[in-house]
Every structure is written in structure tokens, then in C-alpha cells.
Amino acid sequence: MSDLQGALSRAKELARAVGRPVVAKVRPRIENIALDRIRPELDALHGDIAALRQDVEKCTKELDGHVKWLYDEQRRLAPHLAALEARVAAVERPGSVARPADKLEYAPDEADQVRAEHARIRARLSAISKYEERLARLEESLAARPEVSN
Asked: Is the overall model pTM greater than 0.70, yes or no?
């Protein structure tokens, strides 16, 4: 049996040695045929990737504009919110340092208005922070994706 296996092994080596030049000549032709058949699919995929890249860039630019606007709004509202918080604190705690008794006397309905405005501003800032958190997660997921080149 071992003689048969040895003969088969030598026959395989001889076939490989004789077939190498043939394979070397035929291989480029086979690769060209395979590439010609695959090329339309590759071109379609490259087109799809380019379209997706443009969509992502467009969405990123839009999100960047929204984030800048939200940042500006937050920066603009911060002093107003701080002032309202001081006023609400003064109304809620009579005799506090922030509320001189002779200067700031609020009627009950005015205090309710200030509290309502304070609640609206807190809701807006909460929405802004949730939106910014969502944008940060989207940016992280986009950054985590591998870059596809044409």
C-alpha cells in the first residue's frame, strides 16, 4: 500500500510541475473573465456607496447646523435661566438674601407665572440636552463605521 501511495504522491508532484506553465498562462485570462463578469456589480456597489456617502455628508451638515443653532440658543438662554432661578428662589424662600423685602413683592399670580416660565425653560433645556445626547450617539456610531474608499 505504501508503494502505491508513494507512486500517487510522485504522480501528483509531476502533474503539478508539468501543469504550472499551463496554469500560469491560463490564470490571467480566467481572472480577466471573472473581473469582466463582476465589474457591473462592483460599479453598482461603488455608485451606491457614493450615494450613501453624499447622503451622510448632507445629513451631517444639517445636524451640524442644528447643533450650532441649539448651542447658540442654550448660550443665549443661560443668563435668562439663571436670573429666573434667582427670582424663583427669592419668591419661594421669603426673607432670603436674594429677595430684599422692600423691593420685590410678588403677587401670587406673578409667582405662578414665574414658576411656569421656569418649568418651560427647564423643559426646553432638557429637550436640548436630549437632542445633543442623541447627536453625540449618532456621531459616535458614524465614527465607528469603517471608511469605505472608491
From this structure: no
